[in-house]
Amino acid sequence: MDVVKEILTAYQQYMSDEGCEIIERSRVVNDVDLNAFNYSVEEPVLRKFGSFFNITSDYKFGVVQPCIRMRDAQHICDDPYHLSQFTILPIPFALYKKHSPVVELDRRRILRQAIHFLTEKIGVALTNIEVSYFAGGNIRQLIDTCSDFYIEPDLITYNVCRECGISKKQLIGNSTKENFLCQTVIPGEFYSGYRYEIYYKNGNIRYELGTGENLFWKQKKNSGEVEIIPINSSVIGLGLGLERCIMAAMGSARILDLPMLTEMEKICRRWFSGINDLSLLQFTDALRTMHLISADGGLWTDLNKRRREHVKRLMRRILFIADSHGIALSMINDVLSENAKAQYWLPELKNSISITMDNLRLFLKWRKDHGC
Question: What is the tens place of the pLDDT at every residue in 174-222?
């Protein structure tokens, strides 16, 4: 059994043992954020309750959720650990109608589950784990437009990590927005609260494995000022990144070593004479991302304006690198076939090779018609 199947099988079994439902994934083209593509597990919450603040019953779920974060396409130029398309495994995502002692117990249990999953199911050594947590502070230090509101340190995260055997030197306390969720760019109301990051650390290699959130407040934006207000409902979630977990299990620092990229890499290296690792990663990353958008969103010309701009940047990158190495458009079809095989848990990809190719052809025609 390959490492991808091992991790996905272990995840699904883990959620089943916890009595947690594995739900159908959200499409990456959905209505949560019309300016972007799906980048979290928020859509199932809206699907079930219609609102983030209308939690009428406790709800826990797991999901193998593909995400697309377009700003990560830029990070590919800066470090070797980012992909525009990645997969979240919540352990689990839990919503509660009312805050209660059960919530506090689950808050501890979910973090213990994640550490156990990483060490016992994936094989990450406990000494290779670092965790950052909120060390306490006034919210005005994070958002200068926020009213004075002091948040206590996240000692539960700290104490659970210590109980699990993580040493003090592996725990990083800070008082920044990295470890307290608050967004000045979001209009209206949104959840706010503690956030912790779990990292893989081995020598000079360090990358994030997952993010946990314990959200017990609501942020409300009025006339430019942000208020942080305690609420009755609670959200506790911890999402591990599938691709990063695979890298940690393999002890790899090179994202091109991921099994879902290696066959694409082999084909491209045969065709792309002298291509360097960065260009190869940019090409395969853009093509994988475009493939999934095509599977879930159809023709790029049918997307809204903001999403069309994102997609055009992806296709420019694909075609520029292909053209630079004399690769015909028809040859990209084989790379898409390998991508569909490699991400077997997304059967939609197999049936979307032709529409992805149609999108590239449509873009070439659009570019010619617009003289660019």
Answer: 998 889 988 665 566 788 899 999 999 999 889 999 999 999 988 877 7
State residue 205 phi and psi, 5-degree precision.
-90, 125
Read off the tokens for 34. 């019309």
**CA 57/CA 53 separation, integer angstroms:** 12
Among the listed residues 2, 6, 47, 29, the one whose alpha carbon sits nearest the alpha carbon of residue 85: 29
Q: How many residues does the chain have?
A: 372
d(CA 118, CA 124): 6
To 10 degrees, what angle do helices 332-342 and 353-369 make?
A: 140
Tokens of 163: 């109980």
Q: How many CA atoms lie within 13 A of 123 on its CB side?
A: 9
What pTM did the predictor assign? 0.92
Phi-psi group of 170: left, alpha or beta (phi > 0 → left; psi -120 to 50 → alpha; rest → beta): alpha
d(CA 176, CA 172): 12
| 251 φ/ψ sector (left φ>0, alpha ψ -120 to 50, else beta) | left
Provide the CA 329 distance to its chain's centre, in angstroms: 30
Decide the pairing of beta strands 59-62 and 21-22. parallel
pLDDT digits (tens, 9 = 90+) for 94-140: 999 988 888 999 999 999 999 999 999 899 999 999 999 999 988 87
CA 276 to chain centre: 26
Phi, psi dihedral angles at 234 (to 5 degrees): -145, 150
Q: Beta strand 171-174 with 129-134: parallel, antiparallel or unpaired?
A: parallel
Task: Give the Cα-Cα-Cα angle 367, 370, 372 (nearest 5 degrees).
Answer: 55
